[in-house]
Design brief:
The chain is an all-alpha fold. The protein is built from 28 helices and no strands. α4 packs antiparallel against α5. The protein is elongated, with a radius of gyration of 32 Å.
Length: 466
């Protein structure tokens, strides 16, 4: 009985897996091994792919294609020296095999030698009868080099030869976006749509460009055309919802988001946006219901926890806000947005030690906004930790040199620490920078503000009245 290609592949695969289970040795021709290896690679089963490659080379030690699979295994394991050595040996035997050039380029790319990788891929392009994959690889190398103009050219060539290569189309648009060429992207997509008017991906992408340009009505029309082209295109419904929110059409936005819930499993993004729409419409109960659904669906989505926390912050219900932000911190203790709110809420509750801890963690996680440094400083002052407050400000001054709010605080702290010369230096510097912030001394250091020396320095730097 004659087997079709797919049945033959399934039969080969069954025999191979049977051989592994029984330790018997069956013979396969080299093409069968190639299909078996390819099957495992596509499914990410590297151990089985590696085993098939080893057994294949034992039965067909001169097969170039099987040796190229071996090269892939070496590259996957980041054993680039072995991969390169084997490729050099293969190149001596087959100098016009484009796959050897492709894999050599792959090795160079892994070593961040992208220009050399491009040269090899261009050589492969001259040898191949199927240029699309190689053009795509060259485009990716130019992306690694952040050469978006050249990357765009190669991805455009891919789209030109295969109009259903949506990966290449996305990459073309990505290059336009990175170069902030939104108008040019729209022109390109319009040309594409003239030839392919029912391409939902192109309509979706053109809508996103109009969204970037804040032309929300045209964006809305584009997303509607994407939905007409494919009424199950979830991405178009989500983007349409975002546009409707911008147009303050919250009920219509919710309808768009709700549609996605019926097309597939609920996405946390849709649940969050529905909650936001309900909150904008003043329906607090439904807003909270969807925020809670959102965190149940995706506990790692920080925007959902922040939405619930901010909801209670607006209502000045600090205890409930604290409850949710502490749950969020328990799930992801390295999220700087959580710690900022944690600190803010504890400050509102006058839990100054916890607030200081929150601001300190915020800074440790890389948030160097001036407000973070100043808030932590003011809390340390409340706690009487003047040395720690000063050290905090000295760190801040590395990021914000000659900042009047820092200098006035340093002046006050140095006076509190009985370091009069340093205090005078910082006060004079602060007054030169901006006298309007002298109120910092009056509010945070009233006893310092009343000092005769301080009043004399302030009066000497007062701007003359007009």
């Amino acid at each position: 009985m004659h087997l079709g290609p797919e049945e033959h592949n399934n039969f080969s695969l069954t025999r191979f897996e049977s051989m592994l289970q029984t330790n018997d040795v069956y013979f396969f021709d080299s093409e069968e091994f190639e299909n078996i290896i390819h099957h495992y690679l596509e499914r990410g089963k590297m151990a089985l792919a590696k085993k098939a490659t080893k057994l294949g080379l034992e039965q067909h030690p001169s097969s170039t294609n099987l040796k190229l699979f071996e090269v892939e295994m070496y590259i996957f394991e980041n054993d680039l020296d072995k991969a390169e050595k084997l490729l050099d040996e293969l190149h001596l035997l087959e100098q016009f095999n484009e796959e050897i050039f492709i894999q050599k380029a792959n090795v160079l790319s892994r070593r961040d030698e992208h220009q050399q990788a491009i040269k090899l891929l261009q050589q492969a392009l001259e040898l191949t009868e199927e240029p699309l994959e190689i053009r795509s690889l060259i485009g990716m190398e130019f992306l690694f080099l952040e050469d978006y103009e050249n990357a765009k050219v190669y991805f455009m060539q891919c789209v030109e030869h295969d109009t259903e290569d949506y990966s290449a189309l996305y990459n073309v648009v990505y290059c336009f976006e990175f170069l902030q060429q939104h108008e040019e992207a729209i022109a390109y997509l319009n040309d594409f749509l003239n030839a392919h008017p029912y391409c939902e991906v192109a309509w979706h992408q053109i809508g996103k460009q109009y969204y970037q340009l804040k032309d929300f009505n045209k964006a809305l029309a584009a997303f509607d055309f994407a939905i007409i082209s494919d009424d199950r295109f979830i991405g178009a419904y989500l983007e349409k919802g975002k546009v409707l929110e911008k147009l303050k059409k919250y009920e219509e936005a919710m309808d768009s988001y709700m549609t996605t819930l019926g097309l597939d499993d609920p996405t946390s993004f849709a649940l969050l946006r529905i909650g936001k729409c309900y909150e904008k419409l003043g329906n607090e109960e439904m807003a909270l219901q969807f925020y809670n659904k959102c965190v149940s669906e995706d506990a790692l989505l920080d925007k959902a926890w922040i939405a619930i926390t901010d909801f209670y912050l607006k209502k000045k219900d600090y205890q409930k806000a604290l409850y949710y932000i502490e749950k969020a911190v328990g799930i992801d203790s390295d999220n700087v947005l959580y710690w900022k709110r944690y600190a803010k809420i504890h400050k509102k509750l006058q839990n100054f030690e916890e607030a200081e801890h929150g601001y300190r963690r915020t800074i440790e996680l890389g948030n160097y906004e001036i407000d973070t440094w100043l808030s932590r400083c003011d809390i340390l002052i409340q706690l009487g930790e003047y040395d720690a407050a000063r050290n905090n400000l000295l760190q801040a001054s590395e990021f914000y040199p000659e900042h009047p709010e820092i200098e006035f605080r340093l002046a006050g702290l140095c006076f509190m620490l009985q370091e009069t010369h340093k205090a005078q230096f910082h006060l004079v510097n602060a007054l030169h920078l901006d006298t309007e912030f002298v109120m910092i001394l009056e509010i945070l250091f009233p006893e310092v503000y009343r000092l005769k020396l301080v009043q004399e320095l302030i009066q000497n730097h007062q701007k003359p009245s007009v």
